[in-house]
Design goal:
By secondary structure, the protein is an alpha/beta fold. Helix content is 48%, strand content 13%. The chain has two domains: 215 residues, D-Maltodextrin-Binding Protein, domain 2 (3-Layer(aba) Sandwich), CATH 3.40.190.10; 189 residues, Periplasmic binding protein-like II (D-Maltodextrin-Binding Protein, domain 2), CATH 3.40.190.10. It has 20 helices and eleven strands. Strand 1, helix 2 and strand 2 form a beta-alpha-beta unit. Helix 13 crosses helix 14 and helix 19 packs antiparallel against helix 20.
Length: 418
Amino acid sequence: MITRRTLLKTAAAAAAASVLPTPAIGQTSRKITFLTWNIIDQKELIESWIKRFQAAHPGVEVEWLDKKGPDFGPFYQTQLTAGTPPDVINTQGALGLEYAAQGALLDLTPLLAKEAAVKSRFDPNYLGNWIYEGRNYMLPFYITKTLLFYNKPMFAKAGLAGPPKTFDEILSHAQKMTSAEASTGFMTLNFDWLYWPLFAMNGVQLVTPDLKKTAFNTPKAVEVLDKLAKATQGNAINKISWTGRWVEPNGAFGAGNVGMLHAHSPAYFFFKGQGSWVTPETLGVAHMPGFYATPNSHGLGISKGSKNPELAWDFLKFITDNGQAGELAERRKLVTGNIAVDKASLAKLEKEDPTVYAVLKTQLEHTDKMTGNWRFGNDSRVKEAFWPEVQSALLGRKDAKSALADAERRMSRELARA
């Protein structure tokens, strides 16, 4: 099985073997390629954008390519190796940072400095998700961060008045809603650091501010991990939290026998389709304690090897402008990071779909409390060093103290390599 780590190793080797072409401003070729990450459902919309952009730029051709997540990396790496990378790319999560670290992306910092109006479109905390070593390499395309969904009927049956306000309340609420194998109280998504708010709300830091050394192996972290492991063994936390990825945990919550789900906003549309119990009256929406949340957003960048970087930048500005971003927000019921667009979109949703409004409103609040979004150029390798050890403790295979010590050794080696 090809892993993201394998793909990124391939990219590093390709970067070492060939020099990416420098942006050739003013070349006669007037074609750019736009590579997106699994958004084929918006074919009609994106093709309409391309027609409009081409009409405003006579003689220009925009080719659109869409790849599913597992296919995106291999395709992009192949194009990098060949020296023909797509001009504009749409990546998910921290992958854009890894491409930036490899030298595959154009530094957008000078362009944003020249066009303050473009930079000011965006929530600065979301825009900052793609800053690597002080330089900005991507713009927000559509954005998400985690929140807490909860089953109101299960809360009422357990005598719970509202969502938890502290970490210990998460566990106590979960225990009150747990009934042998019939129901569990809490579930979280785990990939891409989405579980990290559980540690952040306890004051646990993963690394030092300079990202060079580990900081998580503390008595408090041992305590938190031990509590999570014991709650998992007692079924208050569903074990799928630590073994599933997307379909399994969201499907379990949609089945109606899990009290709380910590996930990012797109989970709502998945579990709503799975569970007939999900209605405005039965589904609760809240922030996690301390307002901590992990982003898992989609960004737009320009390949450093683009033959037409000025045209690619024009296309990037076009996509994220109010008109196009507003269409995407309305069709997909999401937030874009474009401040004006999201404000208008949510005002409309508040009247038309109060539940979606409640979900998306959390995405624009407390964006200064985002966590789990360290600007690592080797994010996938850091995760691979840390997560398996912690997962072993959560599933009862190791004690918390030993697991964190082993994670510290593995992750320290990875940070040293960086």
